[in-house]
Amino acid sequence: AQKITQTQPGMFVQEKEAVTLDCTYDTSDPSYGLFWYKQPSSGEMIFLIYQGSYDQQNATEGRYSLNFQKARKSANLVISASQLGDSAMYFCAMIPTGNQFYFGTGTSLTVIP
Amino acid sequence: SQTIHQWPATLVQPVGSPLSLECTVEGTSNPNLYWYRQAAGRGLQLLFYSVGIGQISSEVPQNLSASRPQDRQFILSSKKLLLSDSGFYLCAWKVRGWPNTGELFFGEGSRLTVL
User: A82 pLDDT band (50/70/90 cuts)?
Assistant: First the structure.
């Protein structure tokens, strides 16, 4: 069975500091994709970053980076230099071989001025 | 460019009434289509996905159903709503043929309250 786990229901970070949001996954498929999405209070889902299981390097997109540790089956999101606009729900997601796209339960991030 | 629309944006329905949420995608062909539900303060639960017209895969057995009458149209329905059907429903699409790359693109969401 495919599973995504986010163990931090809520996180707080000081503005301009870095924060790591945890994500672990479980799949027996050798090929899979990992994603992070941001959901502000408006409800829209915003794609942040993607990591393929065969990618050798960790993905980066601006202030977002994905700390991919394949052996530990973790795909943590690192946000550097946090901004007030980063306050939102963050979801980790996985698509194994196939068409299903699975999401974790999310982490609520609050950036403190 | 590709766009996705879903409606209605907000819906308040009594228990036992029917439901129809519609989603359309523009600017792409043969997309994979998905319906998710998000309960208040919770994660996204995959309800249905479709890889082609008339092809529906159900992830969670419940009183909801989905249909794909056209390539870029995806409909979520219920004959009789339950209180537990309340939530935020999101439609999404993905480029078909990319096995596990390519992100999901989401619609604006439909907030359903069942009273």
Answer: very high
